[in-house]
Amino acid sequence: MPDGNVEHHSTDVIVVGAGPVGLFAVFELGLLGLQAHVIDIMDKAGGQCAELYPEKAILDIPSRLKITGQELVNDLLEQIAPFKPKMQLGEMAASLTKLEDGKWRLTTDAGTIIDAAVICIAGGGGSFTPKKPKLEGLEQFEGKSVFYSVRKMENFRGKNVMIAGGGDSALDWTVNLNPVVSGMSLVHRRNEFRGMQATVDQMYALVKAGKVDLQIAETVRLNGVGGKLESVTLKSAEKGEYEVPADVFLPFYGLTMKLGPIADWGINIDSNKIPVNTESFETNVKGIFCIGDMCDYPGKLKLILSGFHESALMAHGSFHYARPNQKLRFEHTTSSSSIQAKLGVSA
Predict the structure, then answer these.
(1) All residues at 6 or more sequence positions from 111 whose CB lies less than 8 Å from its CB, including other chains
(2) Are 116 and 103 in contact (CB under 8 A)?
């Protein structure tokens, strides 16, 4: 039995991951009358959408011509509010054990205990940390002049910004931040970029217009005092070492993904992906499901809308574990008065 001083919860389904797919899973579970308890290592809901791309436009969400990552998260939180899910944020799923009654017991790194009939892994690529440049004295600038994500573009208005990297994130923010900054340079070690061609073309158009200073070079050193950046020293074969003025340095070198304790839960894992069946998105372990970017199956597309589809089938598969003595009644939201009552709306 858990200690009386330990925070202890009981629910139908534990959703590990509070990104868009995990949040929509709460909605689909709620439609079936199943209660969800969401856990995420980050201190706020939204996953990578909220952390890395809160103001970046997403263009492939059905019925929405354009929506930012943060707007999508806000809408999903509003959508699931009627089901009153418990949010355990800022805690990591540490250990998982099977109880005698067949339920799962998940314990977080903070000691919180949650019992449930079902575990749903919706953790994207796992817990992630930015890949940091190997620059001496980097720590003194972090959070002051060096940032690994753009949470609010307005924070960079009027700044002289240097972006480093050659992938989608570096190119996206070169284009998106350009209208608000006073100056911008993009540094990459070679004149080849890994981003989408349309964004590469936009970047080159800004270079041609004199709005982006493209530097094909290596980053050598950050220069400044007390965390206040003044310039960045670069190095190229043609110029040797030289300085480029900058108030802000944004290194976008990608993310390091870690599965964390999930790797020890007895689930089949192949190249950091979890194979599932496409009938219910259950893993090889009964009662543990996986949806979103972390799950894998033939034809898998890493899209938010694919994760929404996976959420619906996962919820139906979970019902039989959470309500073994009940028959699942499939109902459409357009015609079900009971669902409409749960949501507080009328058709």
Answers:
(1) 6, 7
(2) yes
Instruction: Decide: 313 and 280 in contact? Cβ < 8 Å.
Output: yes
pTM over 0.85: no
Q: What are the CA-CA distances from residue 60 to residues 30, 181, 271 (Å)?
A: 25, 28, 27
Give the CATH H-level superfamily of domain 8-128+256-343: FAD/NAD(P)-binding domain (3.50.50.60)
Long-range CB contact pairs, 337-346, < 8 A, 24+: 339/31, 342/30, 342/31, 342/82, 342/83, 343/82, 344/82
Alpha-carbon distances of 15 from 89, 114, 180, 240, rounded to whole Å: 12, 11, 38, 52
Pick the CATH number of 132-253 from 3.50.50.60, 3.90.1170.40, 3.90.79.10, 2.40.260.10: 3.50.50.60
Residues of the chain with CATH 3.50.50.60: 8-128+256-343, 132-253
Separation of alpha carbons 38 and 29, rounded Å? 12
* 198-220 tens-digit pLDDT: 889 999 999 999 999 999 999 99
Decide: 246 and 112 in contact? Cβ < 8 Å: no
| pLDDT tens string 236-271 | 999 999 999 999 999 998 766 566 677 788 899 888
Cα–Cα distance for residue pair 317/289, rounded to 1 Å: 9
Distances (CA, A) of 309 to 22, 50, 116: 12, 21, 23
63 is written with which tokens? 């019925």
Instruction: Please give the Cα distance from 267 to 256 (Å, whole number).
Output: 21
